[in-house]
Amino acid sequence: VFDAVETGRVERGVVPIENTLHGSVHANYDLLRDHAVAIVGETLVRIRHHLLGVAGSRLDLLEEVHSHPQALGQCRDYLRRHLPSVPAIPAYDTAGSAKMVAELANPKVAAIASGRAAQIYGLSSLAEGIESNQSNYTRFLALVPREGASAPGSSADTGFKTSVLYVPKENIPGVLFKSLAVFALREIDLFKIESRPLVGSPGQYIFYLDLDGSLADGAVVKALDHLGEIAGFVKVLGSYPRGDRVD
Amino acid sequence: VFDAVETGRVERGVVPIENTLHGSVHANYDLLRDHAVAIVGETLVRIRHHLLGVAGSRLDLLEEVHSHPQALGQCRDYLRRHLPSVPAIPAYDTAGSAKMVAELANPKVAAIASGRAAQIYGLSSLAEGIESNQSNYTRFLALVPREGASAPGSSADTGFKTSVLYVPKENIPGVLFKSLAVFALREIDLFKIESRPLVGSPGQYIFYLDLDGSLADGAVVKALDHLGEIAGFVKVLGSYPRGDRVD
What distance, in Å, lies between the first and last C-alpha atoms of chain A? Predict the structure, then answer.
């Protein structure tokens, strides 16, 4: 996706960046750091699990349920209540387990996967929304080539978010605190902060930051200038409207 | 593991908490929050991947390589260079792919897994340390029941780390910055900070913090008292000697 966006083969790309239950997708943060792309939007998509079987399948027939271990774990309460003696069998992914159930065509075998997987593989939903925790969202980013990125919304626009990566300089005492002070002193709120060991540089950290505001806000620009004084590496990943949750 | 430690069925438990390439294990942070356990130690273990086959297997015989997709990805350079036309097939986990290769007993099929998996399943190592990135470490914590946790090392001991979870109060402006100020103002360095949306409470965040010092240090105790003024929930997970890397 990053290659296709960077080279202009596609107009836009969409990548997952974090999940409420499983956290940040570090591989995609690394790719954001290394590719000439800009974030232009985000959305939060609710993850819903369905119990899927072939035509003729019923709960009381089931002898096996297959899915990714995270999906099985997220549906543990449902499985314990409704299918206490049916083994839950881990699979490589949820969609793959749906495909396998469709190919087996055995009404005794079901998968836990999305409603979309049911459509694609022609499966019936034996139960919908069977996850215990209803707060399972994945946040996706929309990416464009960095060159062609249009200017962010003006300060009159409300609800913009700006994403930044930075590596604090090593020789400044209290550098983490100071790097956050550049925003706090200008009353810029932060939505997300995460440190992660910088791979290949023991003792150094890279920070992911989402702040409230756009590059059209003078205070945000000043704060990022200030950040450049105390960070050896700063990359502004993009300014974009705050996304809504899609249920 | 958490249940066994909490109820005293075992004296100690060991759990993974983060990996340099994949980040924090949020499920285990949630379990640390919810169980009466204390951290008493940590260690960082280098993850090394081996190409494993049955007796008689050789690189030039291989027709399939199986492993967890993350391990396949981490060995991509090796596979491209040495096995460019051999398909890499995703499996549920690395050890499981080693077990499968042992059961198949086919010299044309190999797995990518650890040296320990080779011992357990009686496989030969066709190549060792084939991962592209040598900075792949997993950090493990040693846990004891919270009741029986002994006092942390005195301030004369150097190299202690203290781990804390907290949820900032919602109605305090700049509360994230203030929560870090309690440490910065006392010159207590932070090794790790991470925010994560608090599941079930939109707009609220839980923070993971590792700080330099032990509960035997007066400044650390004062800082944590101060943190309690601006956080609705604070849990000190433990003070323990900083771990070494195990290569």
Answer: 25
Q: Round to whole Å and give the CA distance between A107 and A201.
A: 53
Give chain B positions within 8 Å (CB) of A133. Answer: 199-200
Q: How far is C-alpha A170 from the geometric centre of its chain's CA atoms?
A: 30
d(CA A163, CA A234): 11
The shortest CB-CB distance from B92 to any of A27, A90, A133 is to A90
- Higher-confidence position of B196 and A111: A111
Residue A221 pLDDT > 90, yes or no? yes
User: Of all helices (H) and strands (E), which one includes residue B22?
Assistant: none
Q: Which residues pair with B166 in a beta bridge?
A: B207, B234
Q: Which residues pair with B52 in a beta bridge?
A: B111, B125
Confidence tier at B154 by pLDDT (50, 70, 90): low
Type of residue at B133: N
Q: From A58, A64, A189, select the one nearest B175 (Cα to Cα).
A: A189
Mention every residue, 6+ apart, whose C-beta is less than 8 A from residue B58.
B107, B126
Nearest Cα neighbor of B165 from B213, B111, B235, B78 is: B235
Residues B64, B87 contacting (CB under 8 angstroms) = yes
| Predicted TM-score of the model (pTM) | 0.78
pLDDT digits (tens, 9 = 90+) for B102-126: 999 999 999 999 999 999 999 999 9
Average of per-residue pLDDT across A61-79: 90
Residue B143's H or E segment, with its range, is: strand B137-145
End-to-end CA distance of chain B: 25
**B228 touching chain A per CB within 8 A:** no
Residues of A in contact with B202 (CB under 8 A): 135
- Quote the pLDDT of residue B151: 64
